[in-house]
Design a protein that fits this description.
single chain; about 1000 residues; alpha/beta; globular
Length: about 1000
């Protein structure tokens, strides 16, 4: 049957036609000089039209050898040891003391007419069926000023071939040593393209050639994914000639995006350091991000913030480098520079040198970037901000120390790029950034001026734009940096989803092979009498007792090592590695010791484990002081390289290397700790790096978490993330009223305290007045601690909630209330006092419990498809649950723990059920009337007379648990009686 569509005579011809419409010159393929990968005629036409004076002088010097000398010299510049086509195009070359340019980039302003004219004189040309060798024929080659810069292999699905065939053609039929494909010297990029998809590579390496998708992405919001949109009237790949291959875009790519990355690698055998070079070409979403931001900034300047929700595997380091480099030189329509300095903020203590190298790869200008690493202090940050340093990379932790020392930065304009916004933007550190960059040399005349200025400097500053990058935006991050969509919800300015990254093959789905285990055990009392203990405190101690129990650890280590040997370690050509995530530093040490014993007993000498934890550890009944350095017998800084080597294949960690650690050989994770929300996503995502050329498989064995909980943790970040609610000023005022109702904070003390704080900041406070600050706080602290334990915990929790959400509110809104801010200042200092020595009740279960009958039971193996749940909510600032620390007998606690281990009910199920009952009871008109007319004691009678009705109403939602309560009067009273004080108080407040 005849093909419906012929790639050679239809798709390719239409492709060429579109390029010609864009201003390209179509050239015959016999104009191709395969020795130099150039079109000589076009090269000299460009030189003569843009640099006639230089050409005339060179002709006089070289006479009849002029053309041969110039082409040979250009070729030598490109192919020499440290040369490249990219650098020669960008920087030109010098010959006979004359500077020759090979391309002209668009000037940053319109002031220089000569440069603008030369920019317009760049010559783009295209050839079909080019022969780099006698036995090779390339479909299309694109030239800039006569130099070959791009190649294309085109296929049509309608002819029975796809982009995969084009990729195979490059890998198997193209010689990487031919001049056209010679790495760094030949074409900058090679595209494989059919009518639906585009892939690209910057280096041909036979079968090892790595192609990356260069697609727009398909769908929006929760429907986002890999590929390209399908149109009714044009090809899915039409964006290539409509945008990417436009003259302006190609020149922008060469001058502003493509760069040669240099990465150091250490030979594990010889210890020698070598430099590996990679030509970096932006992926489509990276190019799209930078261009959309620049276009928006040109219009809105410093007035808006930007949230970039880019998945792991998005190439974030390069995206940040491109963005910082472009923002340095972006001008508005009046040719004015928009930003004076770019500040890159990370929450890592050691700022990543990779970022600095990426920026310098784009521009080698001296002094362009200054990295303030762990050897720099806050004063270095102050100097950098006040100077003319264009790009400053620092940790957020340095800002609180300079916030009160900076002056006159209000007149400078800053772009702040935030790496990992979900963790870097919390609370007062973020306030310190905005206050520092919005600082003014303003002398306050009175306390009110100071307070109003502090409120204003806590929020969005008119001279600062924030660009926040994260794969996992928290609700507060969405509100602080997101943009309102047409439905009035906050979402990211730009999205590259986890789903698209997985489908494009840049990361792996870590939930694709997930196995859960449950530790079965029986807790026994080792003493006859039942000591009374705080419920939550006792539960924590019992959970820790089980976690560190030798039998439990021994059984788990057996499961882990045998699974690793049988399923993991032979992967990636024998280079596969695993991480064991423990719940504590003591756990890490005990698992390491158990690993060593099991390995020695079974003579598994091909398994070697490192350990990673902070500080010093002393185990029970063991006086040895354990440290990471002492156990590993190497420095902390050497651990990542050691783990990367062939000498080690397991790392046992406790709160280290669970975020920001990129080890592509990591194939398995064994989880021994509870993971929730963003922390679950961050930890498990250590596994998701691909490891070309291997087909990497990942495994998770989880001994602590339910698969559904983990799946739900990933759901908001699988596609897009949208904020469904917000905190209002009214809620803050409600919290203030709740705090005032305890009647322990004297308004006069708040007023006096703020007066003295103002004096202290003005540095005119007397020693006596300074003491008064402490005396006022001590007086209030005494009042607070004098409350009953339940009320003390409720008030402290409410004040913490008020402080946290007020700090958030003034950063994201125009909320301005002097009296509330005064209370915020007072409560912030008060909480510092209340948190001293609040480490718990000192309860000790040592010797009072024992455990037996341990068994590691496999619950299930999962590989379900991820279902996106895009909406997230900001947690309520109030409505705190009653304190969990109700004193119960130890036997009851043990009963709960054993039930959780072997029965159908766990704590989460029970609490969920209780909240359902509470919500039903809160809607009862009978109870509202009873609360209005009775004391709390009398209210109990009407409360319990209505409980059964509420249980029956809730049966459909939690039948087993509610039936148990209906049938057990004592348990019903004990469990549901916990809520009587809260429901009584709430019903009376709402009268």
């Amino acid at each position: 049957m005849k093909s419906l569509f012929n790639e050679r005579y239809e798709f390719q011809e239409e492709f060429i036609k579109e390029l010609v419409l864009n201003g390209y010159i179509e050239r015959k393929n016999d104009n191709f000089d395969r020795s130099f990968a150039m079109d000589r005629e076009i090269l000299f036409k460009f030189l003569e039209s843009t640099q006639p004076k230089v050409v005339e002088e060179l002709k006089k010097v070289f006479k009849d050898d002029y053309e041969e000398t110039i082409t040979s010299f250009i070729n030598n510049e490109i192919t020499k040891k440290h040369g490249s086509l990219l650098n020669t195009l960008k920087n030109g070359f010098e010959i006979s003391n004359r500077k020759v340019e090979l391309m002209y980039t668009r000037p940053a302003t319109d002031f220089n007419k000569d440069l603008n004219e030369k920019y317009e004189n760049n010559i783009f040309s295209v050839m079909q069926e080019v022969t780099p060798k006698d036995d090779e024929r390339v479909d299309v080659v694109i030239f800039l000023n006569g130099l070959a810069i791009m190649t294309f292999e085109l296929k049509s699905e309608f002819s029975g071939q796809s982009v995969e065939d084009a990729i195979c053609q490059y890998r198997l039929e193209r010689d990487p040593k031919s001049r056209l494909f010679l790495w760094k010297s030949g074409a900058l990029v090679n595209f494989a393209m059919d009518t639906s998809n585009v892939f690209m590579t910057t280096k041909l390496d036979k079968e090892k050639t790595f192609f990356m998708p260069f697609n727009m992405g398909r769908g929006e919001g929760v429907n986002t994914g890999a590929g390209n949109p399908i149109f009714d009237d044009k090809y899915s790949v039409s964006y290539m000639w409509e945008d990417i291959l436009k003259k302006d875009t190609i020149l922008e790519l060469i001058s502003k995006f493509i760069f040669i990355e240099e990465a150091e690698s250490v030979d594990n055998v010889t210890g020698k350091t070598s430099i590996k070079e990679t030509v970096i070409f932006p992926r489509y979403h990276q190019l799209d991000l930078i261009r959309k931001i620049l276009a928006d900034v040109k219009v809105n300047k410093t007035s808006l913030n930007y949230l970039i929700e880019h998945s792991a595997g998005s190439g974030k380091t390069n995206s940040i480098a491109w963005l910082s480099h472009r923002l340095v030189s972006v001008h508005d329509d009046d040719n004015e520079v928009i930003y004076d300095s770019i500040v890159i903020i990370t929450d890592r203590v050691v700022v990543d040198r990779q970022l600095q190298k990426a920026v310098l790869g784009l521009d080698h200008a001296h002094g362009l970037i200054r990295v303030l690493d762990d050897n720099s202090n806050s004063n270095d940050l102050k100097i950098a901000l006040e100077s003319n340093t264009k790009i400053i990379a620092t940790t957020i932790q340095k800002f609180p120390y300079v916030v009160d020392e900076l002056r006159n930065l209000k007149n400078k304009k800053f772009a702040v790029i935030i790496d990992e916004a979900h963790s870097s933007t919390a609370g007062r550190n973020m306030q310190a950034v905005t206050k520092s960059l919005g600082s003014d040399d303003f002398d306050y005349e009175n306390e009110d001026d100071m307070i109003i200025d502090e409120i204003k400097r806590s929020g969005k500053q008119s001279n600062v734009s924030m660009f926040a990058f994260t794969a996992t935006p928290k609700p507060t991050t969405l509100r602080m940096f997101g943009r309102l969509n047409r439905y009035g919800q906050y979402e990211a300015f730009h999205l590259y989803s986890m789903k698209q990254a997985i489908e494009e093959g840049f990361i792996l789905d870590v939930l694709a092979s997930y196995t859960t285990y449950r530790t079965m055990y029986k807790i026994n009392k080792a003493v006859k009498d039942d000591p009374e203990l705080e419920t939550s405190d006792a539960k924590r101690q019992i959970a820790r007792f089980i976690e560190l129990h030798d039998t439990n650890i021994t059984q788990r280590v057996q499961v882990i090592i045998e699974h690793f040997r049988n399923n993991v370690m032979n992967g990636l050509g024998g280079q596969a590695k695993a991480m064991v995530v423990t719940a504590s530093r003591q756990g890490a040490v005990k698992y390491k010791k158990a690993f060593e014993k099991y390995i020695a007993d079974h003579k598994y000498y091909d398994i070697n484990a490192l350990v990673a934890f902070s500080g010093k550890v002393i185990l029970e009944d063991d006086e040895t002081v354990y440290t990471e350095v002492g156990i590993n017998k190497m420095s902390e800084s050497d651990v990542p390289n050691a783990f990367d080597s062939d000498n080690y294949n397991v790392m046992i960690v406790a709160n280290k290397y669970q975020t920001g650690f990129d080890q592509k050989k990591l194939c398995a994770m064994y989880v021994m700790k509870k993971l929730r929300g963003v922390n679950a996503v961050q930890t498990l995502s250590r596994l998701n790096r691909v490891c070309p050329p291997y087909d990497k498989k990942v495994f998770v064995l989880d001994f602590e978490n339910d698969y559904d909980d983990i799946k739900n943790a990933f759901a908001p970040y699988y596609t897009t993330t949208i904020l469904a609610n917000d905190i209002t000023p009214g809620r803050i005022h409600e919290l203030v009223v709740t705090i005032d109702a305890y009647n322990v904070i004297d308004p006069l003390d708040v007023e006096r305290f703020n007066e003295l704080i103002f004096k202290e900041r003005k540095k005119n406070i007397t020693p006596t007045e300074k003491k008064s600050l402490l005396f006022i706080l001590r007086k209030t602290e005494k009042n607070v601690r004098g409350l009953e334990e339940d009320h003390f915990m409720e008030l402290k929790s409410t004040m913490n909630g008020f402080k946290r959400f007020y700090e958030y509110l003034i950063q994201v809104s125009c909320f301005e209330d002097k009296e509330v801010h005064k209370k915020y200042i007072f409560i912030s200092y008060l909480l510092d006092l209340l948190n001293i020595g609040s480490g718990g009740g000192g309860f000790d279960l040592k010797g009072k419990i024992s455990a037996e009958n341990f068994n590691q039971e496999k619950i299930g193996e999962f590989n379900k498809e991820n279902i996106p749940k895009p909406f997230v909510n900001i947690a309520s600032a109030g409505g705190f649950a009653p304190p969990e620390d109700k004193i119960r007998k130890l036997s009851e606690i043990l009963e709960e723990i054993n039930a959780k281990s072997g029965m159908d009910f766990d704590v989460d199920v029970a609490m969920s059920a209780i909240y359902q009952i509470k919500d039903i009871m809160m809607k009862s008109d009978k109870l509202r009337t009873s609360a209005k007319n009775n004391t709390e004691d009398d209210f109990r009678f009407s409360y319990f007379s209505n409980v059964n009705d509420a249980l029956v109403k809730g049966l459909d939602q939690n039948q087993d648990f509610f039936t148990m309560l209906l049938n057990d009067q004592d348990m019903k009273k004990e469990v549901l009686g916990l809520f009587i004080p809260e429901i009584y108080k709430s019903l009376r407040q709402n009268l």
